[in-house]
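The records we work with from here on pair a chain with its fold. These numbers are not coordinates but entries in a learned vocabulary of local backbone shapes. To see the layout at work, look at the sequence and tokens printed below.
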Amino acid sequence: MDDEARLLERAKTGDRGAFDALVLPHLPKLRGFLHRLVAHPDDAEDLAQDATLQAFRKLASFRGDAAFTTWLFAIAHRLALTHLRTRKQRWPATIQLEMHDRAAQSAAFGAELAGELGRPDFRYEVNEHIAYCFACIGRSLDPEESAAIVLREVLDLPNHEAAKIVDLSESTFRHRLSAARRTMTDAFDGMCALINKQGACHQCSTLRGMCPADRQGPPVEPLGDAASDDADALFTRRLAAVRSADVTGGTTARMHAVMLRFIARHADPPAARD
């Protein structure tokens, strides 16, 4: 019997310490999944706590038909799906552009953003900003499609495991994944300056220019050119950047949290944020 199995047996008897030790290795990935899915740091943390609490309460029902982590992620996915559906509307794929002028007119937002850029531990990492952008556009998808693309393409889970988490057959899961890839590829086409010279959004380079010179990180390089590169290849390059980003503990995480909270305050229905 391995260590996880021993902890699981103890946790099933109500040993909370054993349960916490069982869950601990999975928390970073769980938080990253929820953060990418709901695009809000506080909501993602609340959902992670709710998921682990629900898992502890329901542990006696875990029969081992799937890996413990698959079962835990399935609980988190159901909670996130309910959470997103209470929002009653998706974000438009152009949400960042739509919020640009509104943010520029907000003195409070500007002061909060400047405070984060001035922190001594801040360093601009463009891959983390690409991941932020990816999460924002993900909120424009059907939540089940968004979950499919995060589980398979970002967290790199095999189709059969990801399908179990979202409670779909593998064939249905592959259909959702294909639809999600197509929608996100189309959303980025013509909008992002990193893949299209005429792209409307230059936020990556604009933010870097706002940072202190010693914290700007490497220059922002294009991911490709929509005029000459295959759209699927461009999306695959973007995914590589998204996978490498630490969205919850990276050096830009606090800055992006400020930006996501601002978007949510203005994009979600008032009742959903109360």
